[in-house]
Structure formats: structure tokens, C-alpha cells
Specification:
This protein is 37% helix and 20% strand. It is α+β, with helices and mostly antiparallel strands. Strand 3 (57-62) and strand 4 (67-71) form a beta hairpin.
Length: 126
């Protein structure tokens, strides 16, 4: 789970029912299995012990420097885990494409696109 992450920060209020997925995610990222997947990933958290309920959230810093902030009331722990895994898969795919010299942004590499040619309307105006 932590393989492609540099940092995970989790913020929640203990008694807030909207923070269930934040608490569950903290348990998952703190597990031995998760920690072994990337020992250099920093897992940090802050528990709000104030009386006011703040929105629980997770901040993720991926190894490609992309940051995401997820308000956990909107997502279950499975959905958050899936987002992390999807981003990791995307990063791995980009790495493989780079290793083989494939640039998806080059026009000739785009599926379904033909080299740019003047449109019929442009030809009629000439």
C-alpha cells in the first residue's frame, strides 16, 4: 500500500462518525505489512481532541511529487486504498513506457488519431 508513497498524513477527531475511514486507514498504513512495503514512507497523524468536529482528511504525497488531499467523509477505506493503488499502477505504467522509449504524448503514438490534415471546411475556404 505504501510502495509509491513518500508521506501519509491523517487527521481526524476520535468521536466523529465521519472519520471512520480515516481511523481504518491509519490502522492499515501502520500495519507491519504496509510498513515493510516501503520503510522510508513517513506515516504521520494528528488526532483533534478539541470539542469541535473538524473534517477528517488524508494527505498523500506520492513518490512522483503529486499530492492529494482526500476528505474521508466522502470515501470508505476501500475506496481510498483503491485510489492509492490506482495511482501506483499509473506510476508503474509510466515508468515502463519510459523504459521502452514510448512517449504517449507524441502524435504518432496516439491510438485512433491520424496525422493532422486540413479539414474539408478548411479546404473549401482555400
Amino acid at each position: 500500500m505504501l510502495k509509491h508513497l513518500k508521506r501519509v498524513f491523517i487527521y481526524f477527531t476520535p468521536g466523529d462518525s465521519r472519520a471512520v475511514s480515516a481511523r481504518e486507514l491509519l490502522q492499515r498504513v501502520s500495519s507491519d505489512k504496509a510498513r515493510k512495503s516501503n520503510p522510508s514512507c513517513v506515516v504521520d497523524f494528528k488526532i483533534n481532541e478539541e470539542t469541535a468536529f473538524d473534517r477528517a482528511y488524508v494527505e498523500l504525497l506520492f513518490s512522483d511529487a503529486e499530492q492529494r488531499k482526500i476528505f474521508t467523509e466522502d470515501y470508505g477505506v476501500q475506496e481510498i486504498s483503491r485510489l492509492i493503488e490506482q495511482k501506483g499502477s499509473e506510476m508503474e505504467l509510466r515508468s515502463v513506457m519510459k523504459d521502452v522509449g514510448f512517449d504517449p504524448w507524441k502524435t504518432e503514438n496516439r491510438v485512433g488519431l491520424l496525422p493532422s490534415t486540413p479539414t474539408a471546411a478548411a479546404k473549401q475556404q482555400q
